[in-house]
Amino acid sequence: MISIITPTHNRAALLSRMINSVLKQSFRNWELVIMDDGSTDDTQAVVNDFKDSRIKYYFTKNSGAADKRNRGSEVAAGDYVIFLDSDDEVKEQWLEKLSEEVQGKGSDLVCCGYEKFDHNGKSIGVDLPKDLGAMFDNVTASFLAGSILIKKEIFEKCGGYDQELASGHHTDLLLRLLQNPEKPKISNIFLPLVKIHLHDGARIRHNQEAIYQGSKRFFLKHTELLKGNSKNHFDYLSVAGVSAVRTKRYKKASSLFFKALQIRPNSLKAYMRLIISLMPKLRDKFWKK
Q: Residue 220 is part of which domain span?
């Protein structure tokens, strides 16, 4: 059995699309564990409209997506778990392809690709599993919600998702899995089986405060690893710098951009970011939300 775990908060208007895509799966041995993170809209009523015993609904107080994914795993009955966001959907062969990979190769973790759609439903790009670079031991993977099937036992042994992280949950999880002496056996499906819908509603990727706070904790947790991988260190500092500007932490932003420039002193982009962060009349316009 595969347990699909979906944290959700006030997405009643989007939830039906996700549930319907799960109901259309060609692979039938699944359960959908919906962890309601304290919704105040009609989420429960939407779920109750679906008369399928494989759909399980749990309502709890608001505590964030990471906690809901972990608690969903605790009640899940499947040997494997996969985390699907409530505003996305999946293609009909999603679980079938993933389960075939497990059965054929005995994989502990299987990744697949995903396709992005804009708010008008237009496809704007496909991302497939790829070499993630030296910081990730050059493993080939795709680590985004919906694209990661993992053996429940391994997920729980590594401690699940870090509930103290405001963002970067999947990246942090993968790093901890790879740092474990008993590294999981990873395989990939080079097909876009997940549909990621971009919209103006609440998402972590739109929450600049969450990105900033998540970056702070990520730096503290993985300082040595980042120092040993200049490209990733540069990229994370730059992302944190932009979120610092967008949350009005201007001095911190300049400090982050300066650190990035020290890593890549010949980078024109890094130099320009630092200069712009010091210009009050320009920085907010340049990095508008």
A: 207-286
Residues 242 and 281 in one domain: yes
**Partners of 197 in the beta sheet?**
117
The tens-digit pLDDT sequence of the chain (289 residues) is: 999 999 999 999 999 999 999 999 999 999 999 999 999 999 999 999 999 999 999 999 999 999 999 999 999 999 999 999 999 999 999 999 999 999 999 999 999 999 999 888 899 999 999 999 999 999 999 988 899 999 999 999 999 999 999 888 999 999 999 988 888 999 999 999 999 998 665 555 668 899 999 998 998 899 999 989 999 999 999 999 999 999 999 999 999 999 999 999 999 999 999 999 999 999 999 998 6
Q: What is the CATH number of the domain that holds 265?
A: 1.25.40
d(CA 35, CA 70): 10
**117 and 247 belong to one structural domain:** no
**pTM: predicted TM-score of the whole model, two decimal places:** 0.90
Q: Is 246 in the same domain as 222?
A: yes
- The values of phi and psi at residue 44, to 5°, are -60, -40
- The whole-angstrom separation of Cα 90 and Cα 84 is 9
